[in-house]
Here is the input.
Amino acid sequence: MKGLLQFLIAKIILLALAYSVVTCYDPYPFKITVLCKDPKLVTSNDFYFSGLNTPGNTNNRLGSSVTNVDVRRIPGLNTLGVALSRFDFAPGGQIPPHIHPRASQLILVLEGTLLVGFVSSNDYNSTLFSKVLYPGDVFAFPVGLVQFHANIGKTNAVAIGAVGSQNPGVVPIGKTLFGSRPLIDTRLLVKAFALDVNTVRYIQRVFSSEENIVTPIVN
Here is the structure.
């Protein structure tokens, strides 16, 4: 009887320890979490960010800037499954084709005129879904599909993006294929994209030195 009681107590302790870990685990496969902060050390600042009213620097090749407000800026978002971004565009600026592997997205235009869209998977014939958006317009992007945003107006454009993950991730198509480290074998890209060797090498040089349009986090 004593041995059985000790076994049950040990099992309860193990279950309690397991539960303490699980409570910091996000069960949704598209949400990548970070380590939980000790609740006793949490403050109001862990749920706060200031500065989304500040325009991002669009002085780059793409003419755009992204300011993310995710779990890295607001630790309190951990496991909550939400995040925001501010998008700034110079005239003609764009956020080129990319994928968010862990979240669907909504975009709300505040200023300017944006051409946005996404392309469906091969199962649906790689169909393009696209709209021109004006202030007040909203467009939805399903998770995991190639999407893009471009300012087709003559003035600056500003938009807010909301995603269903505190850490949605981003896979820029051009940078991933032509600016990886180390670089993908040139011969593979030549055949895959029906390009000549010199063109592929030129594109690789461009993306290998590409600056990041995402506003860095200042600690």
Observations:
- The chain has one domain: 45-208.
- The mean pLDDT is 86.
